[in-house]
Specification:
The chain is of the alpha+beta class. The chain is built from 19 helices and five strands. Helices cover about 60% and strands about 5% of the residues. Helix 4 crosses helix 5, helix 10 runs antiparallel to helix 11 and helix 13 packs parallel to helix 15.
């Protein structure tokens, strides 16, 4: 069932994963919105199947080589067997020219390993293949390149790294070529993140920082994964590194604020969020979190401008409208409160908080009692364990002399932490008096 209440707690989706101008960041869940959405890419090449044994055995004796992962671009006609045949002949020719290996790796994916070549030389070889094919065909290929040795990657790792580079190339569109780098690992780390394999993602991000220790977005991604594995100290250090590298980027202070929420330190979280807002007024999550925390502190008037800013950025956010309604209602501003709650319900008809508040506020306005009761009933049905919603429904029943129903809801509200003992005693006395009066009449 859809969410029934505002976003009031930090969770994995509360972190910001990308910032303005941060570059490619593939396959990553985007906090609570679509900020810097990556370009569309074809199905990933990584992880690719392990090549045949005869390929891996030959690689054992090569001290250095360049590995190329080659894929026919999705714009190419699937039925164009002539292009695939032409590509295969070009790969075989290039392998023979350099005493290398070419192999059919997977559906639409080919491998080429050239001993003794560096990344630049391998790129030249790949460009030669692209040029040859371009003379006869309109179709195109994309290429990922990696080299061995590099860091502590094995020779088999180098083959997979070529596939990571190929996935990286896909974000630039058909016909592109990319040499394996930190962003390639960032993308594969995001692949593992999306799969829920956080330890594997952490390994990728750490390796990426081995290639580029100053990449702000990778420090940020690493921090998010560490936070979700309960390594809060490691996460904080990663976010601090990101903040040190780019003091003008809002992601790091915002994510430090989320860490403070996880640590039950809302006051410190608010300070971080406000620092982030001073750097970035365009990202929904930042003013939304500020407005939410201020409303939790009952600073209703202060919260309103931030929530209005959040709604200006993302008008379809039901939780922001609900919180704005709560602020107006708490200040006695009935009409703007009703308007905000109505927008929230229009966006999400299952928003129990907005439904309950609307039922109560409509009653204040003197609306049809049945309408008021209907909204409050719906809220209780959606969130039966919320004492406030039951208390509001009980008051409506009580006001309209539906005493037994009111009593049941007051008792439930009290059991859920909203003390209604005085109302319960009052109704019990009324019911008792009515029962005695009926006995006397009889």
């Amino acid at each position: 069932m859809p969410s029934s209440s505002p976003e009031t707690h930090a969770d994995p989706q509360s972190f910001l994963r990308t910032g303005p101008g941060s570059g490619l960041h593939a396959h990553a869940p985007q906090a609570t919105g679509t900020r810097n959405a990556p370009l569309e890419a074809p199905a990933t090449a990584f992880p690719a199947p392990v090549p045949p044994d005869e390929i891996t055995i030959r690689l054992q004796g090569w001290p250095d080589f360049a590995a190329l992962a080659v894929r026919i671009d999705p714009t190419a006609g699937e039925a164009n067997g002539a292009f695939a045949d032409g590509l295969w002949r070009s790969l075989q020719s290039m392998a023979a020219q350099h005493s290398g290996i070419s192999f059919d790796w997977a559906a639409g994916l080919y491998g080429l390993v050239l001993p003794g070549l560096n990344a630049h030389e391998a790129a030249t070889a790949a460009q030669q293949i692209q040029t040859e094919l371009g003379r006869s065909f309109q179709d195109s290929i994309s290429v990922g390149i990696s080299t061995f040795p590099q860091l502590d990657f094995s020779n088999l790792d180098a083959l997979q790294n070529a596939c990571k580079a190929l996935d990286h190339a896909a974000f630039y569109g058909p016909g592109h070529m990319v040499a394996f780098d930190a962003v390639s690992l960032n993308i594969s780390g995001d692949y593992f993140y999306q799969e829920g394999r956080l330890e594997a993602a952490i390994t990728e991000y750490r390796a990426a920082l081995g290639l580029d220790p100053n990449h702000v977005n990778i420090h940020n991604s690493l921090g998010i994964c560490l936070a979700q594995t309960e390594d809060r100290d490691g996460a904080r250090a990663a976010f601090e590194d990101a903040r040190r590298l780019d003091p003008n980027e809002a992601m790091a202070p915002y994510n430090l604020g989320v860490l403070c929420l996880l640590d039950k330190k809302p006051e410190r979280a608010l300070e971080w969020f406000q620092q982030a807002y001073a750097l970035d007024t365009r990202t929904f999550e930042i003013p939304f979190q500020i407005g939410k925390l201020l409303s939790e502190q009952k600073a209703w008037a202060e919260a309103i401008p931030y929530l209005e800013k959040a709604i200006q950025i993302r008008a379809a956010s039901g939780p922001a409208h609900t919180l704005l309604g709560r602020c107006h209602a708490s200040l006695g501003q009935t009409h703007p409160a009703i308007a905000a709650y109505q927008r929230a319900v229009k966006i999400n008809p299952y928003d129990a908080a907005a439904l309950s508040a609307l039922g109560s506020l409509y009653d204040v306005k003197g609306e049809n009692p049945e309408i008021c009761v209907t909204f409050c009933r719906q809220s209780v049905a959606l969130s039966p364990d919320n004492g406030l919603y039951r208390l509001r429904l009980a008051r409506l029943y009580h006001k309209h002399n539906q005493l037994e129903r009111a009593l049941a809801e007051y008792e439930s509200a009290t059991a859920l932490g909203c003390d209604a003992s005085h109302q319960i005693a009052d109704i019990q006395e009324q019911l008792s008096s009515a029962s005695k009066g009926e006995q006397c009449c009889a």
